[in-house]
């Protein structure tokens, strides 16, 4: 039996070594590894204080320093340092499994029989004889060997441990130190004689080494204190003091060994937090750890589900079978405590610090694998074949997981070799390469172009770029997929503002964008920020600046300061934000609108501070600059355009209201001019492509309006024209709905009459937006949409083309006034009468809704689509409920009303969940959503009477 066990253990050791050296240098050194190599390559005296150590103690870096002096710095060499403890962990887990199973399987001591002779103990005293019991001999040996072999097998084959042993990091050494410390602790707790100091020494020294290798070892050591406490409390009263002194002495030894690192540890750990990271829920946290420690981090969750369920069945069922034996609960309870307590403690810290990856708490894996060993032993006790079957299942489960780690490109590290090789071939000595991370490109890059890591401070980055770019023709900006160096993207913003983007190349884990630089590069964020001082939702727009670009590929300093933008270039905005107290991580939307109010460009970005934090985490009155680039739509016609900014909650998409009630604040105007080169017609974002020649213009295509439409609604139609020649006559566009006759028609010049066709250049492409107001009397049906081009001066038809169809859906109309529960008369602007309302209930609870029907009558036809507002006001006239809507649930715009028509318009007015009990008033009215201006209210005498109606009936909110 012993020979067979040794042979199996020998094979496991070779398997562990083979798996860890297989393809050891196949993947590139990545960020953490390169950082470790860099720090370890410094003098020993400089390692402990290196800023790059982040939150790591120095022991591993000392080891790596010495190892690199012997083996070199190539991938295989530096990673092999992690292979060694990974292999040594196998026999140590085997011994831990034997020790804990033997301790659990030992029969309790019995009182000495008077007939039995006293046997001397080593070190003095009398040994109490232990009678043989069921389970002794061969059966008991097998019960001890099963957990030991399975734990050793897991240490050898577990995908997670194999992956960690193939990286130049400190984790495998910490596993080894903790396993050795745990073995010393176990020997200490079950040592009957208690005379040998060796277990204490092993426990203290290796625990201190673990803490000096990775601070997260403290979570496992904290769990061990509970074992110590139980050990002390379980002792006879006369031994308790002695055990307590041993407990305190052991921990004092650890503290003394760790003491030199304490000041540095406090400096590293205390400020370490990143509140912008998402903290996983407890179930997500446990699920991620469960999958990682079982099948590795790279095995897809959907593919791993079957294996994980099978493993759960084996563990739970096997542990229940193990617990059927008398006194078997000690081993399970001990290991469960060593597994669950560290997981719980780390999650408490995680909630505060928001820094999670399964490896950060992977020091519980030996306890986890030992539990798996007990579970397999439980099955083997029921039937030996079941134990073998469970072990085979575990072995087969790791095969696809190992394949994923070794051969699936999705799990590979970044392709830094491919990146640096491409840069060496593409960038010459006259170019500049900038990286947004310090590692690992230094490990591989050997190109002719000078290369630097650019630390991005938005307040100084323009000057830094100006200095670096002097004498350079092109700049290659390399971004790592996990980098947080430039979350506001100020570097590409500056390069797009002054340079010309020539191309982009992607590699696994990287994106490279390169730019042609101006002849005399000079960068700035903005010449001067103008004070603004408007507030919304605890956020203040303190200052702003906007500008444009020059017509050439690159821009001069003066051109970027101007407010002229070629249609193929981008406008820019610089906004200075101050946060007094934000309720959400707000986004700012910088919007470019034409004279018709159409959005022709937009960029949305989170508000980010200089500390790279989103709005909720800014300090009180903290200020920060954010930058925005707004590209106009292709073919935007020359003219004046307005830039504005909106703030909104990205979770709800609800916009905040600026002071004055508007949800967009104006930033300024820019002039869009004709580009030097027309856009490629093949890239125009058209839904339908045409090539219809109408006079001197070609209709390239159009965007089909969504439908159906109601009478009086606006039918948006976007046309794309190209001038076939120049000069051209002035043309007028006629739009018509046709069935048996023409039912609705609109006449206008292209580009909202702001850019007549007689000013167009040959080949110029112009986007032409029409807000076509349909007549209120258009009957329901399917209509052909016809576009015609007419010479404005002569009225001669140049040509027409049918674009498709539009469906008009009517609604029932009434001209009779119904019986109203609460009749009244109110006149809005001489256009609309409020005849009365119905309010079925006048009581509500917070969070409920109040049904309200308003009855309107149109006094005339209207050219503006007005929005109804219905507000619930408290005693201080604070809005505690609101519903704004186009009448009849957005299907009856006021532009579709006929004179004398009566409409019953139903609303469900929500009551705020925070509304306090009391009487509330309902106010109603109309406003133009384009201008936010309300329709005035006229009294019975025709004189102005405000801009709202307060209903006489009050609403009571009850608790």
Q: How would you summarize what this structure contains?
A:
With 959 residues, this protein is of the alpha+beta class.
Strand-helix topology:
Elements: H1 2-21, H2 31-40, H3 44-47, H4 59-71, H5 75-105, E1 119-120, E2 126-127, H6 138-157, H7 159-164, H8 171-190, H9 198-213, H10 217-233, H11 237-258, H12 262-269, H13 282-295, H14 301-323, H15 329-353, H16 365-382, H17 384-407, H18 416-426, E3 432-435, H19 441-444, E4 451-453, H20 461-469, E5 474-480, H21 490-498, E6 500-507, E7 510-516, E8 530-536, E9 539-547, H22 557-561, E10 564-566, E11 571-579, E12 587-593, E13 599-606, E14 622-630, E15 639-649, E16 654-655, E17 665-673, E18 688-694, E19 697-703, E20 714-723, E21 731-738, E22 742-748, E23 765-773, E24 781-791, E25 797-808, E26 822-828, E27 832-838, E28 843-844, E29 849-858, E30 866-873, E31 879-885, H23 887-890, E32 902-910, E33 918-928, E34 933-934, E35 937-938, E36 949-950, E37 955-957
Parallel strand pairs: 3-4, 3-5, 10-17, 28-37
Antiparallel strand pairs: 1-2, 5-7, 6-7, 8-9, 9-11, 11-14, 12-13, 12-15, 15-16, 15-17, 18-19, 19-20, 20-23, 21-22, 21-24, 24-25, 26-27, 26-35, 27-29, 29-32, 30-31, 30-33, 33-34, 33-36, 33-37
Helix pairs in contact: 1-5, 1-6, 2-4, 5-6, 5-8, 5-16, 6-16, 8-9, 8-10, 9-11, 10-11, 10-15, 13-14, 14-16, 14-17, 15-16, 16-17
What's the pLDDT, averaged over the residues? Answer: 90
Radius of gyration based on Cα positions: 38 Å
The count of DSSP E runs of length 2 or more, i.e. the number of strands, is: 37
The N- and C-terminal alpha carbons lie at a distance of: 77 Å
Estimate percent helicity.
25-40%
Separate helix tally:
23
Content-based structural category:
alpha+beta
What is the 3D form? globular
Poorly predicted tracts of residues: 105-137
In terms of DSSP E residues, the strand content is: 25-35%
How would a crystallographer describe the biggest sheet? 7 strands, mixed
